[in-house]
Amino acid sequence: MKPAGMICRDGQVLWSEVQMAGSFLDRLQGLLGKTGFSDQQGLLLTVCGSVHTVGMRFPIDVIFLDAELRILTCHPEVSAWRMKSCRGAHMTLEVAAGGVARHGVVPGQRLTWRTAQSRS
Q: What pairs with residue 2 in β-bridges?
C-alpha cells in the first residue's frame, strides 16, 4: 500500500491516516485481518465501485466517490457479510463506523487527498 495521506474537505482534515490501495492485491487484501480502525484511519480504494465486508471484524462507513473525489453516496455502519456498490464510482473510502455522521459527510461534497509529504 502507498504511504498514508489525508482526506480533507474545504481545507479541513477529516481523516489524517488514510492508506491508498491502488494495486489489485492491495484492494483484494483491503481491511481483512484488521481488528479495527481509529477515528483518524481510513482506506482509499482506487478504481473501485463495489466492496464487501466478508470476514470483517468491525463495522465501517463506506463512501463512494467519482473521479474528482465528489461523494456519490454514503453507507454508514456497514456490518460484516454485506456488499455495497455504486454505479459510476471511481474510488471507495472506508472509514471507522460513525465517521460519516461525525463529519457531516453527504453526497455532493468534494473531498481532497493530500499525501503525507504535503502535511506541512
A: 20
Helix or strand (DSSP H, E) at 15 = strand 12-21
Fold classification of 2-112 is Jelly Rolls (2.60.120)
Q: Please say whether the beta carbons of 64 and 86 come within 8 A.
A: yes
Cβ partners under 8 Å of residue 92, min gap 6? 44, 45, 48, 49, 50, 51, 62, 63, 64, 65, 86
| Interatomic CA distance for residues 57 and 65, integer angstroms | 24
- Please give the sequence-ordered ranges of beta strands (E in DSSP) within 22-87, or none if there are none: 41-46, 50-52, 60-65, 71-78, 83-85
The predicted-structure confidence for 24-46, as pLDDT tens digits, reads as follows 666 666 666 677 889 999 999 99
Euclidean distance between CA atoms 118 and 67, whole angstroms: 21
The grid cell for 89 is 464510482
C-alpha grid cell, residue 26: 492491495
Residues 40-76 pLDDT 10s: 999 999 999 999 998 888 999 999 999 999 999 999 9
